[in-house]
Write a structure and sequence with these properties.
This protein has helices at residues 2-19, 99-115, 144-154; strands spanning 30-32, 48-58, 68-72, 75-79, 83-94, 118-120, 134-139, 161-171, 176-177. By secondary structure, it is of the alpha+beta class. The protein has a domain at 2-58 and 87-164. A 6-stranded mixed β-sheet has the order 1-2-5-8-7-6, covered by helices on one side. Strands 3-4-9 form a 3-stranded antiparallel β-sheet, with no helix packed on it. Strand 3 and strand 4 (75-79) form a beta hairpin. The radius of gyration is 25 Å and the shape is elongated. The termini are far apart.
């Protein structure tokens, strides 16, 4: 699911940049991939923007402990509570011989999310197939020391980049028939009842 959502994000940002830049039509500029290969070399090809996942976190404020149950034809159906997830992602511009283009493309990404701060089934193709109604985007600004730590984890020197938090991705449990049978009748045995005077 996360990979499919990020593919849609990459497509939408790519379409916006293509429509608002001097790049040739049909250029696949924004690519979903790991930032670095197993050998530590940069996986983002030259003249492209890499979109990578940095972190997955649960949105605890929306966590419910209530198990959803319903009864149909004497069978109990149950579904565990939804889990709401936030994804932290990074866009990395890699134009080795054109620093100005790197910076301008980062600006284009900021403009895109300023104009389209959320994706819904009404404004984004393919989202409904992922059983997701709406996701939102928030610019994730970090102090320089935290950015330094992230680039240390990524294993390379800084490249022009921008981070976003994608919020409210809901993971839904599939409904199942409960192992616990439906209670239809309660009998209370009163034969051993003690009387108190």
């Amino acid at each position: 699911m996360f990979g499919n959502i990020l593919k849609i994000v990459a497509r939408e940002v790519n379409d916006y940049i293509e429509a608002n830049s001097n790049l040739p039509s049909g250029t696949k500029l924004v690519v979903l991939n790991r930032p670095y290969k197993a050998d530590g070399t940069l996986a983002i090809s030259n003249n492209s923007i890499g979109l990578s996942l940095l972190n997955i976190e649960e949105e605890l404020d929306n966590r419910s402990a209530i198990v959803n149950k319903r009864v149909v034809d004497g069978k109990v159906y149950r579904r565990n509570p939804d889990i709401t997830i936030n994804l932290q992602v990074i866009f990395i511009a890699n134009f080795k011989n054109d620093y100005t283009t790197e910076l301008n493309l980062i600006t284009n990404i900021i403009e895109f999310f300023q104009k389209k701060p959320f994706f819904s089934t009404k404004n984004t193709d393919g989202l409904s197939k992922l059983d997701t109604d709406k996701i939102s985007f928030k610019l994730n600004t970090m102090p320089l020391n935290e950015q330094h730590h992230i680039w240390g984890l990524l294993g390379d020197k800084y490249l022009p980049s921008i981070m976003y938090t994608i919020s409210m991705i809901v993971i839904k449990d599939s409904e199942k028939i409960s192992d616990i049978p439906l209670v239809k009748e309660v009998n209370i045995d009163t034969s051993n009842k003690k009387e108190y005077e």
